[in-house]
Amino acid sequence: EIVPQKSCSSGTAAPPSNPSLEQLLDYIVDVSLRKIVEAGSYHRFAKCYSHLYKAQPELTKCVYNQLISHLQTSFREEIQDLKEEGNLSVLFKSLDELAEEEDIHSAVVPYLLKQHRFLQKAIKEKEEANSWLAEAVLAGRKRIADLQEEIRKSKEEWQAVAQEGQQIVSSLDEL
């Protein structure tokens, strides 16, 4: 029986763990070729070429094996040429990096959102404290203004009393 040839990927029956997109494509190609070989069995081939099969069964088997091998090789070469012409390796790598970045985002974003909520709460608390302090400062300024007004009035009263006292002393001096 024909065993599919190995491509650039692992060539195993199971897909590679955490594969890149290019490895995944190679795996799909291998599986597809294996399915094609299984679907187009030697018995069908022999039936189509029954005259050759009856005359030389071993030659028929050899032709079949060479045909399948050639088809697999040609198919893999065509896929490789397409990958090279389309610069698919670079594109696959870029897509893999984007997927990895997306994975990082999915892990980091919840943490950042939690941090954002924490910082928003801290900002709100600080704003409330600042508001209270601003009110206290305004009340302090008002108290200072009130005290300055009281001092001004007391000073004016004292000056009036002092002036009145001087007038009294002057009037007493005249007497």
Question: How do the helices and strands line up, and which of them pair or pack?
Answer:
Elements lengths: L20 H19 L2 H7 L1 H6 L1 H29 L2 H87 L1
Compose a concise summary of this entry:
Helix content is 85%, strand content 0%.
Total helices: the number is: 5
The domain count comes to 2
Succession of helices and strands = HHHHH
Give the oligomeric state of the chains in this entry, treating copies of one chain as homo and distinct chains as hetero: single chain
The percent range for strand residues is: under 5%
Head-to-tail CA distance between termini: 148 Å
Indicate the mean pLDDT: 84
Low-pLDDT stretches are 1-12
Number of strands: 0
Major β-sheet profile: none
Task: Calculate Rg over CA atoms.
Answer: 48 Å
Helix percentage:
over 70%
- The class by helix and strand makeup works out as mainly alpha
Global morphology? rod-shaped
